[in-house]
Structure formats: structure tokens, C-alpha cells
Amino acid sequence: MPKAYPAEFRRKVLDLDAAGCLVAQVAADLGISERASYVWRRQELIDTGQTPGTTTSENAELRVARQGIAQLETELAIHRQATELFGGCMPNCGSGLVSRRTRRGGMLMSRPGSRARWEAGLPRIWLCVACGGCGAGGEVGGC
């Protein structure tokens, strides 16, 4: 990945370029590549509307959107793995009811996504009411 330079530094390079200094001389004096100077000049023309293209602010918005998409894709992959692990029972069950069972044998009937209070520290396991989470009797929900 290219080295990131501060905006003030890029502005200084562009000002020297606009003042008529040679790009090669400015690049050599400041320790940057000539290519960087040309890229910054082109982006400035785009940002000022003199050349068509994607502006710096639009690029920032796109970067944030791509990061959000990547996060959502990661979450989706995790959900898909969980679905494979549980045999696809919980998210696709037609009964719409799941049970939450603790090690002590307590059971609560609730809709997926609803909140229920449980004793602190007890392990929680979600099971499909229609088939018990294993697909053994899944005619009710089509598990």
C-alpha cells in the first residue's frame, strides 16, 4: 500500500506545482515520487469539478460502505456456519417457536428474538420446539 501523506503536505506539493516548479525537482527535494504528484494533481482537478471522476468525499463514503458490507458478509458467513452446525433448524423452522433449556431442565417457550429472564450463570441452549433441534421429528416445522 502506498505511503499516506498528510493533506497539508499534499497541498504544499500542489502549490509548488502550480507555482511553476518542475515536478521532478519538487519530487526529488521532498522525497516523493513524481507519480504521487501527478496523482494528487488529478485528484484535485476531480475534487474541484474540472475533470469527471469520484471525489475524495465520495471515495471516503465508498470506503465506509465497503467496510460495512465486509462486516455484514462476515456476520452472514458466521450465521451460515451456525445454521450448518445446528442443521438449519432454528432460522428456518416453520413453527416459529423455540425453547430455551437450561442444564437444570427448565424450559421457556418464546418467539425467536424475544427476551426472557434467566438465572445468571446458567448455560443456555436454544432448541427447536418442533424437532428438538436435531431434525428427529421435524414434520411440524419442516426442519
Descriptive account of the structure:
The chain has 5 helices and 3 strands; from the N terminus they run αααααβββ. By secondary structure, the protein is mainly α. The relative contact order is 0.09.
Name its key features.
143 residues, mainly alpha, elongated, 3-stranded antiparallel sheet, disordered C terminus, 2 domains
**Largest sheet geometry:** 3 strands, antiparallel
Spatially, the strands of the biggest sheet line up as 2-1-3
Q: How many domain modules?
A: 2
Helix content: 40-55%
**What is the tally of helical segments?**
5
Please provide the count of β strands: 3
Query: How widely separated are the two ends?
Result: 48 Å
Mean pLDDT comes to: 74
How would you describe the shape?
A: elongated
Low-confidence stretches: 90-123, 134-143
Short description:
The protein has five helices and three strands. With 143 residues, the protein is mainly alpha-helical.
Task: Tell me the layout of helices and strands.
Layout: H1 7-18, H2 23-30, H3 34-47, H4 56-85, H5 89-92, E1 98-102, E2 107-110, E3 124-128
Antiparallel strand pairs: 1-2, 1-3
